[in-house]
């Protein structure tokens, strides 16, 4: 090896020399020593390689600075110890955004999580007898009260709710379902696959766009275990279409002694038409129509924690409670605590709308959105570089989570364009900001949708945009 290069390599400071510096001491105070040493090795190894690869001419001007090495070590430590699951700013306008964690919890649910995390709780104990109780009693009464059902059970998510319902009611038998309802929900949930998994044979009836009661009638036989209806929550079949009403299926089912299961997807408990949304059938509607079992998600339109909620006739819910799968799909104390607190808010509709962030974001008025857009725009204008162009405009946001699939919610957005950077580049920089900011891109502009922004997000957005220079 070249002698001068060797000389340079020898100038790379030793680990102990770096640790003896002020910043080195500070790093040891702030991080585990082993990790700091690992960071120093990582950075100095890179430096060594850099020197070996460098032309001699450039090497003459190259200076090794201990401070710079330690700065890089610090960066390494910050990255290494930062969490993978980060809180983000959701400026996409999609309220139930599955990739960003679906629903935000109401204050009462957050407090409950804090409580059950720091204290022992009455998860599975009967206070009167002091004997073992059942965790399922915790929300069953509230759920039956709110939905009108006889009994209720909560499992890990709606996919497991459907799996458990089918397994316990129709294993080894057939489930009759309309072809137009063989849905796929993002992230590999497909009704035909769930059926296979639960040991239930699929008996499709009707065509893609139309199914009649007579189709179900013809398909019913001694092997039929359930009649399944799936709410086509993330799409709508429009045009020349026909579906059989839940009521129709219930009548047919009771004639033949076959239970009717409805997968509602994102079950909703309240009518949001007073706030300008279209009517979405509620869980109560399904129970009233006589469904034997109804399943829905806890973290879609309900606005609670991830959970699969099963309500319906006691005889069927009891079968599910004792099914061995139920143990594998059971929910923990955090889910139950947050769900109970969320459901409590539903005792009064206006209260639920105010307290539950998902409902609040879906029903916020246009005026309010516009006012907030202008307020945020004014803050942003003060800091952004002159290369940005900014406008406040009316736009459309979506409910998300496979709910209200065709509903266009009027919203206000801040529209940003930049003279040199593309919308994709700006969006990427915002995503890589700390905290990350997620936006929507439309026609070459970055849009910040006020519907899903909270007031405390404003400062983060302003800071993130302030840091984009050129
Ligand atoms: C979302 C959805 C599911 C899956 O619910 P998860 O809670 O995400 O497991 C199942 N069926 C329908 C119709 C859905 O919309």
TrEMBL record:
Its main location: cytoplasm. InterPro entries: PyrdxlP-dep_Trfase, PyrdxlP-dep_Trfase_major, SelA-like, SelA_trans, SelA_trans_N_dom. GO terms for cellular component: cytoplasm. Keywords: Cytoplasm, Protein biosynthesis, Pyridoxal phosphate, Selenium, Transferase. Transmembrane segments: none annotated. The modification N6-(pyridoxal phosphate)lysine is found at residue 300. Its EC number is 2.9.1.1. It catalyses: L-seryl-tRNA(Sec) + selenophosphate + H(+) = L-selenocysteinyl-tRNA(Sec) + phosphate. Pathway: Aminoacyl-tRNA biosynthesis; selenocysteinyl-tRNA(Sec) biosynthesis; selenocysteinyl-tRNA(Sec) from L-seryl-tRNA(Sec) (bacterial route): step 1/1. Its cofactor is pyridoxal 5'-phosphate. Residues 9-48 form the L-seryl-tRNA selenium transferase N-terminal domain. GO terms for biological process: conversion of seryl-tRNAsec to selenocys-tRNAsec; selenocysteine incorporation. It comes from the Bacteria. The keyword tRNA-binding does not apply. GO terms for molecular function: L-seryl-tRNA(Sec) selenium transferase activity. It is found in: Cytoplasm. Belongs to the SelA family. Converts seryl-tRNA(Sec) to selenocysteinyl-tRNA(Sec) required for selenoprotein biosynthesis. This is L-seryl-tRNA(Sec) selenium transferase. The lineage of its organism: Bacteria, Bacillati, Bacillota, Clostridia, Halanaerobiales.
